[in-house]
Amino acid sequence: MKIGIVGLGFVGLTFASVLANKGYNVIGVDTDKIKIKNIKSGKSPFYEPQLDNILKNALTKKLILSENIEEIVNECDFIFLTLGTPIDKNGNINLKIILKVSKKIGELLLKLKKKPIIVIKSTVVPGTTSNKIKKILEKKSNKKVGKGFGLITNPEFLREGKAVHDTLNPHLIVIGSNEKQDSKKLEKFYKEIHNEKISIILTNNTTAEIIKYANNSFLATKISFINNISNLCQTLPGTNVDEVAKAIGIDPRIGNQFLNAGPGYGGSCLPKDIQALIACQKTLGVESTLLNAVHQTNILQIKKIVELIKKTLVNLKNKRITILGLSFKEESDDIRESRSIKLIEILLKEQSTIIVHDPKAIKNTKLIFGDKITYNEKVEDALNNSDCIVLMTPWKQYSKLQKIDLRKMRKKNIIDTRRILNIRGSDINYIGLGIGY
Ligand code: UGA
Questions:
Q1: Contact 286, 213 (CB under 8 A)
Q2: Distance CA 194, CA 72 (A)
Q3: Of 35, 265, 303, 401, which residue is most buried, by most CB within 10 angstroms?
Q4: Is 369 in the pocket of ligand 1 (CB under 6 A)?
Q5: Which atom of ligand 1 is nearest to 267's Cα?
Q6: Is the CB of 12 under 6 A from ligand 1?
Q7: Is 213 in the pocket of ligand 1 (CB under 6 A)?
Q8: Reduced 3-state DSSP string for 352-373
Q9: Exposure of 346 in the CB half-sphere (CA atoms within 13 A)
Q10: Does the model's pTM come out above 0.85?
């Protein structure tokens, strides 16, 4: 059996590497020449724990890389599409890339004798597979779904920073297709990779698409909810959002995950998917009252942090502010929709002097801010002459900081948006987000 993977981002490259390590013949395709060159040398184009190791191993085994999709269509039994689906400024999903690739695949299917199964792993708004991708494939190939080729929606639930772990241990596999036989083939494949006990939901294409959006929207809702409660705690002395989260999390109907109050959710998925679902629902005449509130709460959260900084420093002009953590989450160098980037933009407008530290994301941040801010490889250097620390990303190393590390600060103010710093003292003004003083 041969597996083709089109699009080598977090999902595609991790999936390709894991499959090759498990002994499958895999062809990975991407149109980005530099990316392919990096990957061929055994270097992932982004930081993802464990990925470099399994990639190197995959390259010595069964992973082949190419810029040409033809090989995949001609040779593979399953063709996974793991392409980006960005949004425009109005939140509408932009399907240009995936539709262009579908057109190309359709053209190649025209002369093909065998019947590959095309698997949509990209996040696409409800109706995309059946209404758009299927139509293009059928028109260009002059073949019918189920007969000339298979078409399955198979959303991905892996998290950045844990991509390898989640690919090896998915909590759920969703297989959406209107053709039972094709679903069964993919089900067999996944059971072979994992084991018979893996949770698999078999459904149709559109329900599979909705499951993906419902999943991410629910996670975003939990975060905005706890951030709302966090803002309540902030106003009431003696209260702490973590105590509230711990207590409600014990209720099995609520669950204890995704209740960490913070600067709001970032990344390439939750902010984009919530907006895309809102825009999609609008076209279908469905009200997005709840999702609008989730999105607005997320936007407002960064303003709450600016309020806390203003309350602490009074005037922001010329104040030296140290931002700890630039990536949208720990164990990642991804700064897409990172709340740290939004915060820096606001603080620069207030004419503050910004000094930053991050273990992995400095290179990406330089591409945005250039020499407008100061970058430090060492945390201690980032704290020199600082008026205030704002901890944004919960990298483990920050929780190990000690009082002595603050000795060169001009003023010992700390705003800890994740409540992970363990530094207190009479000369230290510690403010934890979601703690009422
Ligand atoms: C998210 C989903 O968690 C994955 O299941 C999904 O596959 C992925 O999107 C996707 O659609 O591709 P990811 O973007 O990697 O994964 O990041 P999350 O772990 O969900 O975190 C998103 C943001 O929420 C981060 O900024 C994080 O700091 C924040 N967050 C998360 C909180 O503020 N509090 C929490 O309790 C949890």
A1: no
A2: 24
A3: 265
A4: no
A5: 14
A6: no
A7: no
A8: CEEEEECCCCHHHHHHHHHHHC
A9: 17
A10: yes
